Amino acid sequence: MNKSATEGEATTLREVLLRDYSVKQPTPEVSLKAIAHRASAAPTLSYLLAADRKQDLETYLWGMEIVDFLSEHPSARFAPEEFVGLLTKLQPRPLFSGLELKGVPRQVHFIVDVVR
After folding, report:
1. What is the pLDDT of residues 29-76, one digit of tens each?
2. pTM score of the predicted model
3. How many CB atoms lie within 10 A of CB 26?
4. FRET partner for 34 with CA separation of 20 to 30 A, picked from 19, 44, 88, 100?
5. How many H-runs (helices) and E-runs (strands) does the chain carry?
6. Comparing C-alpha atoms, which of 68, 76, 85 is closest to residue 13?
7. What is the three-class DSSP state of 89?
8. How far, in Å, are 46, 48, 58, 69, 105 from residue 22 at the CA level?
């Protein structure tokens, strides 16, 4: 990877995956179909992606992450840019701020922390 998806600066695939994209929950529409298409032995996954198997797919996906599918289907290989293109971008998260107005009038004190 040459560029960060969010900043346009040079970075590594590892940094992009840690900072910019969700590698947790697989999306049936994109990543699972791509894995099923590429994997040489993915009949179960292809079966579960059928429109009438939505409940079975949800049961199968419970607690699984994208890395689980890649481990189960090692024949599914992707170029780094192609793999990142299958992932969803991380959404901004609201920050929780704690403030106390009684302690110091006319001042607001914030505590901000990074949520990962």
Report:
1. 667 788 888 877 567 777 888 889 889 888 888 888 888 878 888 888
2. 0.59
3. 24
4. 19
5. 6, 2
6. 85
7. strand
8. 23, 22, 18, 15, 42
